[in-house]
């Protein structure tokens, strides 16, 4: 027995002795959750899954043949794991392809910049676009400009993304990418360049989705060092900076994406469903290891441990590998095509959905548990008894969402929970060429699997209701 396993087992016993008395069934469920936790700490299923996924299929751009092939492989993995009701559910998708992208400073100090096109952005004319750069330190400075004030210019935003454990720095700057090209076009700009939404100082750029449709312009992200270079450059001269943009990006065909689904059916309440998962698609620069190969592997591995239990949980647990989380779609829809398909095709089943969450924040260690406001205190206490030995604390803030792909389902009234991961360095590699298997720490991934398996067993083997008493699903 490892030192970590011995310590966690001993601490679990102490917590069990000091907690209020539980019923025989509750005590059994807690003991089983602890056993699952400890068994998971010795498992390498998740790392093996993400290793094979990223090695076999590489990048899995939404709607691509690679994403489609990885979905078929995923369904085969679910069947081999013994999951029930395995299915691939397809939906139509517009395929966006990156093509080529170049940005260069023409004057006063000519030089190329390291850039990528933003996902969903449009192409320039074949000869490219040239114009004076209107450079803003912050996105708000751009928004403060009146309509028409940037006519014929290229808008450039240099705002940094602040590093934070919970990723809130990215949340604060994501409108710079998602809405920036549209806002620049509204003010007359002919192109848009932003500092990548990254927290590192390496010379590679971050892609990511922007809003698509009419009223936008060709849009690019430059690497953080190139943004810093541009800052230095404008301090050296009073001359206007002229730039040239070139891109062949755009939507090229109608295709399909898909969700991959499997279940462990409940023994007593099979119609009560807990939904977990991650998104199978990735950007086309790296191999989608942290975003989100890690998440699909963590949740599937956790469910496999539960499937291997001597008895089934009381409720059903459903794992979904959502398709097309990353790429925006033409209006009226935008992103989250797979998540929207899942929710819309099950709109009449929302009342039987117990809870939903996904793993979509890399493979950093889980440090806190977030539960809905209506969670019974006794259930929260039981969960923390099991998770505390993994270094997981209570998050007192009510969970209002379980990750991007849970949004459409949560909007229909389903409660969400969060197993919050340490994402301090997540945005160092997110959406870049450096999102590869080497960025995953196997030990941290194992801790994730242990937390997911143990918590899911507690929730699935209970009758706890996480909805507010006044809530009713549509």
From TrEMBL:
GO terms for molecular function: carboxypeptidase activity; metal ion binding; metallodipeptidase activity. Gene3D superfamilies: 3.50.30.30, Zn peptidases. Residues 1-24 form the signal peptide. One of its GO terms (biological process) is proteolysis. It holds the Pfam family Peptidase_M28. Homodimer. The monomeric form is inactive while the homodimer is active. This is Carboxypeptidase Q. It comes from Brevundimonas subvibrioides.
């Amino acid at each position: 027995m490892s030192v970590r396993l011995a310590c966690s087992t001993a601490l679990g016993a102490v917590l069990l002795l000091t907690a209020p008395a539980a019923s025989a069934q509750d005590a059994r469920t807690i003991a089983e959750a602890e056993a699952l936790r400890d068994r998971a700490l010795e498992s390498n299923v998740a790392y093996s899954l993400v290793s094979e996924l990223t090695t076999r299929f590489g990048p899995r751009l939404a709607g691509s043949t690679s994403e489609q092939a990885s979905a078929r492989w995923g369904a085969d993995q679910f069947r081999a794991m013994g999951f029930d009701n395995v299915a691939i559910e397809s939906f139509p998708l517009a395929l966006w392809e990156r093509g080529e992208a170049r940005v260069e400073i023409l004057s006063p100090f000519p030089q190329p910049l390291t850039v990528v096109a933003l996902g969903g952005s449009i192409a320039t004319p074949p000869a490219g676009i040239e114009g004076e750069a209107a450079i803003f330190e912050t996105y708000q400075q751009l928004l403060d400009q009146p309509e028409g004030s940037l006519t014929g210019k290229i808008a450039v935003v240099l705002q940094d993304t602040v590093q934070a454990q919970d990723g809130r720095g990215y949340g604060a700057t994501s409108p710079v990418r998602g809405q920036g090209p549209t806002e620049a076009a509204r003010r007359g700009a002919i192109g848009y360049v932003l500092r990548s939404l990254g927290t590192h100082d390496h010379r590679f750029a971050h892609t990511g989705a922007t809003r698509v449709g009419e009223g936008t312009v060709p849009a690019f992200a430059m690497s953080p060092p190139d943004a810093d270079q541009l800052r230095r450059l404008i301090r050296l001269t009073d001359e206007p900076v002229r730039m040239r943009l070139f891109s062949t990006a755009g939507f090229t065909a109608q295709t399909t994406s898909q969700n991959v689904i499997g279940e462990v059916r409940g023994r007593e309440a099979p119609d009560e469903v807990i939904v977990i998962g991650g998104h199978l698609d990735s950007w086309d620069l790296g191999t989608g290891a942290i975003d989100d190969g890690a998440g699909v592997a963590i949740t599937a591995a956790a469910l496999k441990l539960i499937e291997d239990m001597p008895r089934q949980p009381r409720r059903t647990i459903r794992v979904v590998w959502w398709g097309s989380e990353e790429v925006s779609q033409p209006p009226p829809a935008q992103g989250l095509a797979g998540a929207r398909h899942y929710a819309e095709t099950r709109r009449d089943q929302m009342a039987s959905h117990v809870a939903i969450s996904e793993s979509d924040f890399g493979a950093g260690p889980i440090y806190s548990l977030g539960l809905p406001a209506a969670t019974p205190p006794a259930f929260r206490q039981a969960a923390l008894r099991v998770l505390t030995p993994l270094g997981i604390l209570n998050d007192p803030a009510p969970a209002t969402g379980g990750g991007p792909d849970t949004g459409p389902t949560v909007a229909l009234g389903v409660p969400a929970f969060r197993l919050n991961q340490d994402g301090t360095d997540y945005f160092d590699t997110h959406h870049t060429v450096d999102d590869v298997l080497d960025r995953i720490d196997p030990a941290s991934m194992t801790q994730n699997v242990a937390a997911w398996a143990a918590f899911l067993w507690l929730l699935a083997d209970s009758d706890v209701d996480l909805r507010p008493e006044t809530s009713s699903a549509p």
